[in-house]
Amino acid sequence: MKYKTLLYILLTVSIFLSGCVDITDSYKPGNFGATEEESEMVNAITEKYGDMTQDGEPRLLEVMMTSSINNFIPVDKVLKYSKDSDKLYVWFVYDNFNNDVLTIEWTYLNEDYLIHTFESETGEDFGRGAFILEKPDSGWPIGEYEVKITGSGVSESVEFEIIDGPTESIPLEILSNDVALINSESGNEEELIAPQSGFEVEETDYSFVGEWTSNWGDMKFERSGNQIIGEYTHDKGKLVGVVNGDIFIGTWSESPSYTGPNDAGDVELKLSSDGNSFTGNWRYGSEGATWSGGWTGQRKE
């Protein structure tokens, strides 16, 4: 296996505040919060973790894998990558660092093989980090992987799989404007993402699970843990997401790459009151408010 031929790209760590040092040891004005998506992210992070301009202990937040990064914002949260994926992306937020060095280790767990280690200097306080590993000439070995981020006495890691199948991802919860709290079967509260397409969440006794005909071909949904996964005939399509009331909120992906923005994106579907049909919207990627088209289906008898 040509592990040593792995190519890699190191994305510059974007700094939140004007005047902070990026990883190339140059200075530039930050633009965090300049766009609607960035404003939404900084508000969500502040609400969840507190004011990041305050002093405190170093910490690493929201470490995740994603299928792509746009304007230094992850488009989704990847659980499993397709072996055909060209790039693997890890994304995170660092806080209370002072020009410290972060190490980002990529390991193939099946053979305990250290693929590569990035080293990058942080800014004077907080910022975002994104690091990319490109597919080797011989392809990705199927199995378990880990990315471990360490610096200034703290460490966080994220594990993921590479599989012989389509990439499996879920919407990015931290960028959801509204989050609904519901009671799970165990009695614990769970956070569910609110729809972005204007649908109103309503209670229902029906489920998406089952077989359907749709304008994108025959479809089938089934439950997998806390998720709903599905497939449809058009371009060997795949669906994965969660259900909030009567609305499926998730991502679609199709051959050949099963990655965004051309072969994957967001989808939201709303069940009819009798549970026998649905209407919805889909879009390429996860950016902006514009939906690319409609999605309708009828339950098979």
UniProtKB/TrEMBL annotation:
Protein name: Lipoprotein
